[in-house]
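Lab notebook: predicted structure, single chain.

Context: the supervisor wants predicted structures on file for every construct in the current expression panel, including those that have not yet been purified. This is the next one on the list. No modifications to the sequence; it matches the entry in the shared construct table.
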Amino acid sequence: EVNNEIKLLEEKIELAEMKVRAKEECDMYKGFIRTKTNPPIYYLPKEHCDQTNRSLKESQDRVKRLYQQRIENCDKKISEIEQKIGKSDGGIEKHLGELNTI
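Prediction complete. Output recorded below exactly as produced.
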């Protein structure tokens, strides 16, 4: 049970790191125009015109939605892990308490 709880905590840490990376990537990419093709290409014209300003705004909205979904998925999975850990009988704390009495 302790090993399972440790794996859940490791997964939670990994998800938290993914969430931080997603926020950083969103901040980085929202300044560029993202193509609608796959794989997407991010670019920034040297000078903007009305069309590129519209494209930039659309791209910023699209990038924000994409990364917001990723962040929400991470939050959901983190909550699920916290619920699983909360349902356990404190395996890690109990085990650490036993080690402290040695």
